[in-house]
Structures are given as structure tokens and as C-alpha cells.
Amino acid sequence: MSTAVVVDGPGEHRLVPHEPREPGPGEALIGVHAAGVCGSDREVYQGNRPEGYVRYPLTPGHEWSGTVRRVGPGVPRSLVGRKVVGEGFRNCQVCDRCHAGETTLCSAGYEETGFTQPGAMAATLTLPARLLHVLPDDADLSAAALLEPAACVAAAALKANAVPGERVAVVGTGTLGMFAVQFLRANSPSALLVVGTRGDREALSRQFGATGFRTKDGPLPDDFDVVIETAGSADAARTAASLLRRGGRLVLTGIPAPGADGLDPTDLVVRQLEVRTVFGAPPDAWAHTVRVFAAGLLDPLPLVTHELPLDGFREAMELAGSGDPKVGKVLLRP
Q1: How many CB atoms lie within 10 A of CB 62?
Q2: Residue 27's closest CA among 77, 83, 73?
Q3: EC class of this enzyme (predicted)?
Q4: pTM for this structure?
């Protein structure tokens, strides 16, 4: 019997029998291969996700990969059997922001797979086919389950617009930081520095293309053209800004808790820093991610350290929040 995880409320979850929902017009039914566990999934389980950004009871899972099993009316049958990943934001497609391609800013209100709509911690997932991105036939679906966080970083990389020969840096050494290293490396920088809190991430950073590694409490340079911040810690944005030369470009992706150190507006103006931000991934970032993945320039698998069945949901939540350096990305497999 196929199953699904249901979180009824903070700290309460069940494993329930799962009946696939047949795809309606414009929809596709996906056989889920794997769902990644993210910090926001822990927020759902712990009950500290911001109001309006979760709707209980809920099947979580916004990072996923799978294979199209069936399609509804109006969807090309050629999709059946294809390996896919999918966007999470259920945008309206008709507001000004959607027409501009900025679907994460959809003015119709927030709806997202795994938070307000059923997610992928189940045997199947049914969603609008327009959200799907098709993978190569030989794609590794366990690796592809990490393409959602990669797409968020791709959005940052596109906004950073690093060009060959520039000096670039990444602040943060988690999943997002390691993807940022890979995207920036693909642009042939002259230097690629990673700044983190843990020295044990240096080897992986260099494996992905870093040319230098520093911990944030040591002396840091101030001559970089581009910095992508992924840590979301209280002082990460300020650390990232300090790495930039005058006129440098900063992209912030981490979401710190209230009370974080703010950027100094005087410093921003006097040094003419350009600051951009990312929350989620619009379609162009997803398409870019799939292209880079298909080209072999993105290697998510070294980030996966644990794969568990769906009935290991509680253990997955504990692993993801353990702070253990040996725990990277955790996947749940239906």
C-alpha cells in the first residue's frame, strides 16, 4: 500500500494510506522518486513557520523529483514517462508580476507545494503541468531532488551576473552555499572564496571549485566583485558586504531571525554597493538550473548524506535539526 506523511499541526504527524489524485485539465500526476528535507519543513513540523505560509493538515515536501505517470486534458501526452522536477509557487499567471516572469512575487497571494498545497512526501503528487521542468532521460533522480534549492541559488547567480575573470565569494557552507560555489565556478572566476563558520567544509568547497576558504571570525579580504550570501545568520549580510570592493554586487538569499545585524546605509551609499535579494525561484532560474544540471556542471549528490523511507519522517526532522556536521541533505523515499 502506498503512503503519505500528513502533519496535522506542530509536532503531530501521521503516515496515512495514499490514493493518487487523478490529474484534471492542465495537470500531471507524478510518481515521486525522492523528497528533500529543508529547514522550512522543520518549521512546518515545529510550528514556527510564519502565519499565512503554511496550512494544516498538510503533506510536506517542496523539494522533489519524479516521473510523470499520467496527464490530464490539455497536457501533451509526450510528458508521460519523462523524468521531471517542478516549481513550488502556484502563481496566478495573470497579474503584472507573473507577466514579468517574477512569479515568486505573484500578487494573488501565497500558495506553494508542500506548505499550503499537498507536497511530495507521498507516493504521488498531482500539480499543474506548467510547473514541470523536464530532465534528461539519463538524469539521476536522487540528485535531481535537490534542484529546488539549486534553483533558488540560480536566481541569485543570475542576479549577481558574474562574468569571467571576476573575483567572487560565497558566504555560507550549507546546501545553498555549495550550490552557489558551483554556479559561480561555471562563470570562470579568477578567484572563488568561501566564507563559513566550520573548517570541515573546506574540502567540499574546494571539491566544488573554491580557490580559497576562510572562517568568518578570521581576517577577511575586501576586494571582491560579487558576493552571494546563503547563511541567513544574524551577521551574514554584514560579513558579505564587508568582502566587496567599492561598487561591488551583493545578493542576499538567507532569511535571518528577527534582530539580525542590518546593513549600514552609509556604507552602502559611500561604497556604491549594489544589493539584490532572492526569495524562491522564478521560471527562468528553474530553466537555468536544469540546463546547468543537464550539462554536468552541477553535482548535487555529494550533498546527500541520508536516505530514509517515509516512515522515517520524525528521524529525518531530527537529523535535519541536529547541527551534526556529518548530516547534509536528507532525502525521503516513498
Answers
A1: 25
A2: 73
A3: oxidoreductase
A4: 0.95
- Give the model confidence (pLDDT) of 275-315 as tens digits: 999 999 999 999 999 999 999 999 999 999 999 999 999 99
Q: How many CB atoms lie within 10 A of CB 99?
A: 10
| Per-residue CA distances from 236 to 55, 57, 92, 171, 196 (Å) | 30, 34, 34, 7, 9
Is the C-alpha dihedral spanning 35, 39, 42, 48 positive or negative?
Answer: negative
**Angstrom distances, CA of residue 94 to CA of 100, 110, 178, 267:** 10, 14, 35, 39
Tens-place pLDDT, residues 38-80: 989 999 999 999 889 999 999 999 999 999 999 999 999 999 9
Amino acid present at 160: A
Report all structural domains of the chain as residue ranges with CATH numbers, in order of start: 3-146+300-333 (3.90.180.10), 151-277 (3.40.50.720)
Strand order in the sheet with 167-171: 212-215, 191-196, 167-171, 224-229, 244-252, 274-277
The three three-digit cell numbers of residue 278, written as one number:
532572492
Distance between CA atoms of 142 and 330, rounded to whole angstroms? 11
Nearest-angstrom CA–CA distance, 102 and 95? 10
Residue 86 phi, psi dihedral angles, 5° rounding: -150, 145
